[in-house]
Amino acid sequence: MPRLIPLCAAVGFVLTLGGAPLPAQAPGPDATPAMLRTEYLANMKAVEDKIVSLAEAIPAEKYGWRPAEGVRSIAEVLMHVASEHYVYLPMSIGSKPPADLNMGTGREAIIANLDKVTAKTDVIKHLKASFAYQQSILQGADAVLSTGKVPGFGRERSVLGNFNIFIADQHEHLGQLIAYARMNGVVPPWSKKPA
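^ thats the sequence. predicted structure below, dont judge the formating
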């Protein structure tokens, strides 16, 4: 038994060292614009699949539900996500909202009009179209990805920084929608146990 204590202490010490954080690595020379775009789009595809499947699973009569007064409803959160794809992401890489959106001109007008969309079928149509638009503008974004900086939101930012902010925000809204759905008795489709 006395020999076991030093052995346990040594093993514990080694395990402690193994769990030490490693310093972060900067993107290497292989981090090309195409690679950044591919990784970003793969992450967004995962978010898209979950948000769209959750939007489809929530009953239409629940789209007006909100957890408290003054807080976005389910439809408003979903349309906020769509407006981010139509307006904010394009701005973050120096592009523009889709020309055929027919929701007014200028950022504020487009967002205000999108906020008025509340019917489930229209919301899902905009969600899908906005994710597709996001993908289409990123396909031709090599030049802006290469320069690394774009003007917008009151100052110049790095494209990678904008991507990080945007993807984090999308995951935040996904979490918000999961909570809203569960509060209304809707289990996210990807969480359901197989029958």
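The radius of gyration is 22 Å.
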